[in-house]
Amino acid sequence: MRMHKLKVLLSLSKPFRRNDSSFFLPNHYCRQFSAQPSYADYLQEQVLVEGRAKSRAAILNRPSALNALTPSMAGRLSRLYESWEENSDIGFVMMKSNGRAFCSGADVVTLYELINEGKVEECKKFFQTLYKFVYLLGTYLKPNVAILDGVTMGSGAGISLPGMFRVVTNRTIYSNPEAQIGFHPDAGASYYLSRLPGYLGEYLALTGEKLNGVEMIACGLATHYSHNERLPWIEERLGKLITDDRLVIENSIAQYGDIVYPDTRSVLHKFEKIDKCFCQDTVEEIIEALEREAAESHDQWCNTALNKIKEGSPLSLKVALKSIREGRFQPLDQCLVREYRISVNWVSKRMSDDFREGVRARLVDKDFAPKWDPTRLEKVTTDMVDRFFIPLDELEPELNLATAIREPSM
Question: Suppose 168 and one of 37, 98, 213, 307 were both cysteines; which one would form an S-S bond, judging by CB atoms 3.0 to 4.6 Å apart?
Fold first, then answer.
């Protein structure tokens, strides 16, 4: 079946022809050689490429911005991965980063600025490109490895966790803090969070709390753990492989891996309380359950979780909970289509301006005093939440994924 899918993809790729009229451009469109770096060079430098004997590596390269994803980065990743999948000389692919972060998520400050400038269509285009790449990764025909060494947040998880092998380290810090900036867990988050043990996904989405690399291994978000100092050995080993055999690749990573267990302070030892509190039907009921648990057990974890939830946008919290609950019963493609609808509604400010306000308060003005609308959970009606999930009208195209030629995962 996978070989058949690859043949279909190859048949759809357009061959290069010298006599193609699009190849001959007027002189003023032709690239001139210059000592000055071009804008295209600058965009390419945001995602570097490393060639290996039988593999390729994409390197996220905005270290000063914690490798936050720009529209151009999402587009370049899609083009690279599509071309690598079609190239029979490439057996497997890899993604890594430069700097202390793998990827801190989407560059929401850029999205904030685009919204302020009235360029909402550019925001939509970014989400389309990003979500299509997430789907490509989740249905990729070749083995793929992501090395999550450092901060991995939001969409940074989206461009790695749907893949086959996810390597984490002692420096990995993962979170989905979208509700705290007036948005929702996206880029496939409603798919992978909803499949975590018990109600851990709801806990992570509503509180924005962090997991380290060991905890990601323990709950299934990652496949391999290695100390940061051994990453060069893993990369050297992978770089020498002449194979597309996933078992060989997996064993090569595991050769330098560690067997690890969460320490006694880990939130994963709170599974019973997480399930007890976060299994509730509504955000209000979750808060009430946490308050009861705090009064009965005097566990500081309950108060910390309560404070984190109360920092989030009331509307975002309810949208996030509904999205994850729906994600439990949907494949990746349906989750992405739904997330796109929600994202379009946020950036279009049709129901609320909380996304722009959250980014302003936390990342632009940094006063950490967002003015949410509605201001309290009890003011967020069921109708307000449901409107984020309604299919887009005929003037607003839905997210179009290549489900006809790529099998949706479940």
Answer: 213
Please tell me the pTM assigned to this model: 0.85
Overall size of the chain counted in residues: 410
Sole residue written with tokens 């997996």: 250
Tell how far CA 288 is from the center of its chain.
30
Residue 36 pLDDT greater than 60, yes or no? no
Residue 19 has pLDDT above 90, yes or no: no
For residues 207-217, average pLDDT: 96
Q: Over 90: is that where the pLDDT of 12 sits?
A: no
Q: Taking the CB of residue 31, how many other CB atoms lie within 10 A of it?
A: 8
Among the ranges given (144-148, 153-157, 348-352), the one the predictor scored with the smallest mean pLDDT: 348-352
Instruction: Output the six-digit token pair for 364.
Output: 């632009």
Residue 14, number of CB atoms within 10 A of its CB: 6
Q: Is the peptide bond before 37 cis (omega within 30 degrees of 0)?
A: no
The pLDDT tens digits for 68-107 are 999 899 999 999 999 999 999 999 999 999 999 999 999 9
Please give the mean pLDDT across all residues of the chain.
87
b (16+ CB within 10 A) / e for 257-276: beebebeeeebbebeebbeb
